[in-house]
Write a structure and sequence with these properties.
Blueprint lengths: L1 H10 L5 H8 L2 H18 L5 H13 L6 H9 L6 H13 L7 H8 L7 H14 L1 H7 L6 H4 L7 H5 L1 H16 L4 H4 L7 H5 L38 H12 L4 E4 L9 H16 L3 E6 L9 H13 L6 E4 L4 H13 L3 E4 L21 H12 L9 E4 L11 E5 L13 E3 L1 H11 L4 E5 L6 H10 L6 E5 L2 E3 L6 H9 L14 H7 L3 H11 L6 E3 L1 H15 L2 E2 L1 E2 L2 E6 L6 E6 L9 E6 L2 E5 L20 E3 L4 E10 L5 E10 L9 E2 L6 E8 L27 E9 L11 E4 L3 E5 L9 E6 L9
Helix pairs in contact: 1-2, 3-4, 3-5, 4-5, 6-7, 8-12, 16-24, 20-21, 24-25
Length: about 750
């Protein structure tokens, strides 16, 4: 019967029967709409006009704070709020003023309640707005943002709230009078802004991720306006705490990048670094690098160093490097206070008892406060073994997890505090409180932490301390990759990769070792952007960003992987050849390479019996040698006892002394012997961790051809003084970077990427 009554009630507001039934499926919406309609009927009777019904539906569907429902409904019922723009202003007002009581005078002024605007006032305001923007209107014509005009009528919001249709009509008429009818140019579609324009590349500059970011970041609150964020929980202390927060920060944006020092950063962390540091930089704010060092069992000094190195490598400098352990004394004091307030208790359930979807409630949840205080002190003094006691908080999280652990016993010495502590706080307890201590304005984290948002707000409010806002975004993943610390350790243990920095991995140290420029990684993060949804990208998109950067920054050299000796029988005299570092822009300088009677070419650049379309060296088919101005022509093929080609004898001529050859090939003379490592994908399938795609597990999906070592490659001597991480383009082969394994007289190069994307890659 209740459903029938509600259906009649909703159709009485002007909703179609279909929309009314759909509304009933949404419990929260239908409850608010039923209460609103019932209240209005007490004022207006059983007949409600459609305009009022529309406002009530808009109110019920958009109001986030049910406490304000009755207040706003009364304004609609009494026709004080009678337009959509007034309702929007009212909703914005109650959202930005969460505490009681509401200042009704200020509220009514903001919403344009009771203001009557004459046609003459409207016309004057419209004309004034047109005049203010006349020069820009004449330039941009009908592509001008007319919304700017609607926002600047100059009557304290009264036009906007009460007369939108007349204003719009007058604006249209005035603009038509000023500009005349639309021309063909006006009707052309506005060109889309390309990616290069977004990144600033067209202007010859590099713009960081957050300096060009749009989308989700536009929804971010201003410092001190945390309460305007949907879902933010306020208390009677909130506004005073925010006032104190603003006094400390001066309204400055503050973010933090909070890695755990128990592994090496990967490509997903690059997005987090760009987002946190970039957002702060774009808003003239600061970003902390805070190590979440609350688990001494897994933390190692090398991870702290590597994380700092990677942040710096990506081009960011933290405002301050901090540690969760900096705040251990304060965190402990707050834990004691939490027990005093009856919001935490010492529990003796074992870890295995707490696993699963529906673990049993703790039988110690209601133990006396004094007892928990004594037991927590005993935990601190080392009177419990590991696992015998924990401190738990009294709350239920979004995912249904009940009473998360705040402190546990661990007897592992801490890298900074030594044996001072034998109890350590958990992430659920530590993170929000460290954010509060550092007065973080925007706590940016990936989507998997959304289930912890309730505990984040709850804990700050339970202790009456400043509560930042947690914002979640989708993490960045790549196909053909694993980034889990545990699984990378398995890869290392089985010998599939050498270490965390093996160039086949997607850790940041591995990418740097392979030769990926930090600028390319930042550009890739910018292209991916920041969204709520998780993003899984193809590796070739990252490689494309690498090519874009290296094409402009990696000087050219020549190298031969599988060499074939060529003897020039009529060579005039040894020469030194000037080779441009960047053939497309010779203003970037030259390097010198020797050119003698013996050169080496790629074995694949010669064929005795070429197939149709083959354009390189063959009988009767000369080729040019790049940068020399000479052409060579085959005269004799020298073969070994097995019949394999050992060397070629050729003659040479000036390139301008005859017909232009079909191809020019690279070569080396008096070369260096170097080791070159050629890398391919480590895994064969897109999702090596997906049992549906790889039933045998990720270790069964290894590509056995992922590394090929050329131990005696020949490289021109221009690279002789190269240092680790120096980058080159080896002509016709790809981009290469000097590996740290290099020693004096024995350079090692890693192939970073090929010159072009492999068409066989999906």
């Amino acid at each position: 019967m209740a459903t029938v009554d509600a259906l009649s009630l909703f159709t009485g507001l002007g909703l179609s029967e279909h929309k009314a039934r759909e509304t009933l499926k949404n419990t929260a919406l239908s409850t608010q709409l039923r209460e609103a309609a019932t209240q209005v009927r007490q004022t207006l009777g059983s007949t409600i006009d459609k305009a009022t019904g529309t406002l009530l539906y808009g109110l019920a569907s958009r109001l986030k704070d049910p406490r304000r429902l009755s207040f706003l409904v009364s304004y609609i019922a009494n026709k004080k709020i009678h337009t959509e723009t007034q309702l929007s202003a009212a909703l914005e007002y109650v959202r930005s003023h969460p505490l009681d009581p509401i200042d009704t005078v200020d509220f009514e002024q903001e919403c344009g309640v009771g203001i009557v605007v004459t046609p003459e006032q409207i016309e004057e305001a419209v004309e004034a707005a047109i005049n203010r923007h006349q020069s820009q209107l004449l330039v941009e014509r009908y592509r001008f943002n007319m919304g700017l005009l609607m926002g600047e009528q100059g009557l304290g919001g009264s036009l906007k709230e009460n007369t939108p249709v007349p204003c719009l009509t007058l604006f249209s008429a005035q603009v038509l009078h000023l500009l005349g009818p639309k021309t063909e140019t006006d009707l052309e579609k506005k060109p889309k802004v390309g990616l290069n324009m977004v990144l600033g590349e067209a202007a010859g500059q590099t713009v960081s991720l957050m300096e060009q970011l749009r989308g989700e970041a536009l929804k971010f609150h201003k410092p001190g306006e945390n309460y305007k964020t949907p879902g933010y929980v306020t208390t009677p202390h909130t506004m005073d705490l925010l006032k104190q927060h603003l006094e400390i920060t001066g309204g400055q944006v503050r973010t933090r990048f909070p890695p755990e020092p128990n592994g090496i950063l990967h490509i997903g962390h690059a997005k987090a670094i760009n987002f946190n540091f970039g957002y702060a930089k774009a808003n003239n704010g600061i970003c902390f690098l805070r190590f979440d060092d609350t688990n001494p069992e897994k933390e190692e000094a090398k991870f702290f160093t590597a994380i700092c190195d990677m942040v710096a490598w990506l081009g960011y400098t933290p405002y301050k490097v901090t540690y969760a352990s900096d705040y251990f004394d304060q965190l402990y004091a707050w834990a004691v206070e939490l027990i005093h307030r009856g919001q935490a208790y010492v529990c003796h359930q074992r870890g295995e008892e707490l696993k699963g979807h529906n673990p049993p409630p703790s039988p110690w949840r209601d133990r006396p406060i004094e007892e928990s205080l004594l037991l927590f002190e005993a935990m601190r003094k080392g009177k419990f073994a590991e696992g015998e006691a924990t401190l738990r908080m009294k709350l239920v999280m979004e995912d249904g997890k009940m009473d998360p652990v705040a402190y546990r016993v661990k007897y592992t010495p801490h890298h900074r505090t030594g044996d001072t502590w034998c109890i350590y706080p958990t992430y659920d307890y530590t993170h929000c409180l460290c954010d509060s201590i550092e007065h973080i304005t925007h706590s940016l984290c990936t989507k998997e932490f959304q289930a912890r948002r309730s505990s984040y707000f709850w804990l700050c409010n339970a202790l009456d301390v400043y509560c930042p806002v947690q914002w979640e975004y989708g993490r960045l993943n790549l196909h053909y990759a694993v980034v889990s610390k545990r699984k990378i350790l398995q890869l290392v243990a089985t010998g599939a990769v050498r270490d965390w920095d093996d160039p086949r991995l997607f850790t940041l140290t591995a990418l740097r070792r392979r030769g990926f420029p930090s600028e390319a990684i930042n550009n890739f993060c910018a292209r991916v952007g920041v969204t709520v949804a998780q993003t899984t990208m193809e590796p070739h998109l990252l490689e494309a960003c690498v090519r874009d950067v290296l094409n402009d920054t990696a000087p050219r050299a020549m190298a031969v992987l599988e060499s074939l000796q060529v003897i020039i029988t009529n060579f005039p005299a040894s020469l030194d050849i000037q080779v441009p570092n960047f053939p497309a822009d010779e203003t970037k300088g030259f390097h010198q390479v020797p050119f003698g009677p013996i050169v080496f070419i790629e074995r694949t650049d010669f064929k005795e019996e070429p197939e149709p379309g083959y354009k390189r060296l063959a009988w009767g088919q000369p080729v040019g040698l790049r940068h020399t101005g000479y052409v060579i022509e085959l005269q004799h093929v020298v073969k070994g006892p097995s019949g394999s080609v050992e060397s070629l004898e050729v003659t040479c001529r000036r390139a301008d002394a005859g017909e232009k050859p079909k191809a020019f090939i690279h070569w080396v003379s008096q070369p260096l012997t170097c080791e070159i490592r050629l890398y391919e994908r480590l895994f064969q399938h897109k999702n090596p961790e997906d049992p549906a795609e790889v039933p045998g597990g990720f270790l069964s999906d290894l590509n056995l051809e992922s590394l090929q070592v050329v131990e005696a490659a020949l490289v021109d001597c221009s690279v002789a003084l190269a240092k680790p991480f120096d980058k080159f383009q080896f002509e016709r082969l790809g981009y290469f970077s000097v590996d740290p394994d290099s020693r004096q007289g024995q350079l090692v190069f890693n192939r970073t990427v090929t010159l072009k994307e492999d068409p066989g890659k999906v």
